[in-house]
Write a structure and sequence with these properties.
By secondary structure, this protein is mainly beta. It has one domain (2-134): PEBP-like (Phosphatidylethanolamine-binding Protein, Alpha-Beta Complex). The chain has one helix and ten strands. The chain has one helix at residues 126-136; strands spanning 2-3, 5-7, 28-31, 37-44, 52-61, 65-66, 75-76, 82-84, 104-114, 137-148. The strands form two sheets. The protein has a seven-stranded mixed β-sheet. A three-stranded antiparallel β-sheet has the order 2-3-6, with no helix packed on it. The longest helix has 11 residues, at 126-136.
């Protein structure tokens, strides 16, 4: 299996990629893939009840980058074509870090290269995707970033001011 280099623009998740912000999927750079498609799983192994899946996506064209801002829809055509599965929030698409307040968690972004598209319906879960990857993946790589929610929620700009 080919080794892929996976990179994101941060070591700690910026607020915009979390449930405390806009919950926008991050840009992921994928280096070393010569296959035409990619699949991605993002999960939190530090979740209180065991590994928690935040994102499942596959059949993404391998162009060296998975762009930020992939909409949380079963089938996506912009900014890049993709099929997305159901995460452990029971929602389709990306759902960013949302760990318990005060706890620092690790989030792994795992990427597989694929020689062909996976024949997996939108909304499929992690087990189905992993089973499909077992027979189809030609490369693999991962990266990790952390997120720690503040113990007190941040106030929106201008909150608490009187005029």
């Amino acid at each position: 299996m080919q080794n892929l280099t996976i990179e994101v623009d941060f070591d700690r998740f910026p607020r915009e990629h979390t449930c405390d912000g806009e919950d926008i999927s991050p840009r992921i750079r994928v280096l070393g893939s010569d296959a035409p498609y990619l699949a991605v799983i993002m999960d939190d192994p530090d979740a209180p009840r065991g590994t928690f899946t935040h994102w499942l996506a596959w059949n993404i064209p391998s162009t060296g980058e998975i762009p930020a801002g992939i909409p949380p829809e079963p089938r996506v055509f912009h900014p890049v074509p993709a099929v997305q599965g159901t995460n452990d929030f029971r929602k389709t698409g990306y759902a960013g870090p949302c760990s318990p307040r005060g706890a620092s968690h690790r989030f792994f972004i795992r990427v597989w290269s694929l020689a062909q598209e996976l024949d997996l319906p939108p909304g499929s879960g992690r087990t189905w995707l992993l089973d499909a990857l077992a027979g189809a993946a030609t490369g693999y790589g991962e990266t990790m970033a952390v997120y720690r929610r503040r113990t007190v929620p941040e106030s929106p700009p201008g909150a608490g001011t009187r005029t």
